[in-house]
Predict the structure.
Amino acid sequence: MRVRLRRYKPEQDFLRIRDFLVNTYHVSEKPLNWRLERWNYARYFVAPFLGTYGQQEPNLEDSLKAIRFWEDTIGVWENDDNEIVGVVNMEHPDPTHPGFGEAFLQRHPQCTFLLSEMLDYAEETLINKKTNALHIYVYEDDEALRALVQKRGYEKDAERARYDSELIIGDLPEHRLPEGYRIQSMAQENNIELRREVFGRAFNHSDPAEWPSPFSYEELQRAPDYRKELDLSVLNPDGKHVAGCITWYDSHNRMGILEPVGTHPDFRGLGLGREVVFEGIRRAAALGADKIQVGSGQRFYEQIGFQKKWVSHRWAKKF
């Protein structure tokens, strides 16, 4: 099989890569690549969000630059039939972010022979120039990639593990919201100002400059797989957004994915995160999902029925 490398072309490649990831996610029953939601989230939320992170008055052009930076670093491998068989990309296009300098090697399960060339590309394109380091996440069961990074001198960081947890949808509990609280979707009321505040506070950011900018949330809503009816908030009796969850739906794999989930720190301990997650699961199940996944191994998810399924570790090398 002949394969050629080329640069990413946003207009023609975003959905093609999305489909490539969807179609290869569980081909071997063990994930090698990103899920649908992470690809959407990286372009349509992470990049524009990080472009203006910390700015009191977000500069639109900085968000657009971050999007272009993310796009300009992506490598795409195609075969003679013009099918995408490999992608190398970053996730955090911000040199000040702790995740800058991470590379993700995503390939068709039958294209293990590409890994060396893909790692070459990552080492040429995605090294963090300030630290001279590159980090590669490798699933525990991905023997081919693990062998390659070991051979190249990367060292496993035992402190940096990412978990994917899964819940097989069965009977779901009845609603148990406190009196006066309710769940509402962005399809019912698209209040971006209130939604971005709980988004920021749920991740312990009290400074509005560290919340998603209005533009970054508007971009998120433009993502091809985003659905307003799956973007849920818990509202308290005063109408304040106090918890939130976005559910994504992958119809090919009959799978819902949670990203992100969070509760305002002043309202934790009331079961609000649990309730908004279960409502997201109900809505995904109504669309046809038979399982729900989340990129987390937090005890919160174990307590509501999720089980850790896979783990990936970060491997690092200084150049």
